[in-house]
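thread from #wetlab-drylab

HS: before we spend reagent money on co-crystallization trials with iron/sulfur cluster, can we at least see a predicted complex? here's what I'd submit
DV: go for it
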Amino acid sequence: MGEIIHRSKTRPVRVGPLTIGGSNEVIIQSMTTTKTHDVEATVAQIRRLEEAGCQVVRVACPDERAAAAIPEIKKRINIPLVADIHFDYKLALKAIEGGVDKIRINPGNIGRREKVEAVVKAAKERGVPIRIGVNAGSLEKRILEKYGYPTADGMVESALYHIRILEELDFHDIIVSLKASDVRLAIEAYEKAARTFDYPLHVGITEAGTLFSGTIKSAVGLGAILSKGIGNTIRVSLSADPVEEVKVAREILKTFGLASNAATLISCPTCGRIEIDLISIANEIEDYIAKIKAPIKVAVLGCAVNGPGEAREADIGIAGARGEGLLFRHGKIVRKVPEEQMVEELKKEIDKLAEEYFAK
Ligand code: SF4
């Protein structure tokens, strides 16, 4: 099967030190759940997100206090910071002045022309891109009246309305999202958007749900969109700790071979041939590889009958045998280890492989 080719035709847009779009990898984003004016709590959460693999973080900027906290937050984190603003152009100006790397605001909602111009001028001067966030639940009244209910055409029309406002002011550092909690609607909207304009797409299924159901819904929706080569940055939206959003996003990207900085676990479903306590070992190894930033495939298999052969694509793995573990690389057994040492041995081998990867 061929690799998924991501839309290299999208315009590359710089967000701090990163570039979203062009031929760049899909970037993982999340959003804090703390009160943004509470700098300590917000920075602590962003640090946890960074550790989990979040590459761009967004904070809500609903008032003056939130906007005023931006310079301090920015100083203490390592990933690009995005301010989420609704309507109020003064907050947008303050956030840009405070050093944000991107703002999320819909120019059509800002109001008078002078206000839009002021925001665009400030964004241009600082090289700050603008994300237009179309949401099926809050389409413009006239679009809803035209289509009767939220449709993909209506969502793309809304995006174009906001895009045109920026283009008229000769502003092109634009990223667009078209979120819907209805997965089929979101897929259709992103497909239409990808055919209609070349700005990078921020992809997400909004209000997806709790950790369990939202993970499935996001995986199905984002999976369908990514599999078409659409999407330059993703956010998984869950009613959960945002660290979970990042973990889920990473797994989705790994599924398509789109995460170059994450290890993958292959583990068997177990069956009557099982020789080891596979479920707890698989969970332990999954936690362990979460910190590995190399694209290594690790397999944990219940028995040696089918195990190593089934996991031929794994770079390293263990298969349970009676009282021992068989360590294998690319389907070939390399040595036997006593059962009680096999997890530690596997971890050592994983570290070795990661070192080799970075030494290359
Ligand atoms: Fe069963 Fe062995 Fe396959 Fe696991 S690897 S599912 S234990 S046959």
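DV: The chain has two domains: 13-255, 264-359.
HS: ok that's useful, forwarding to the group
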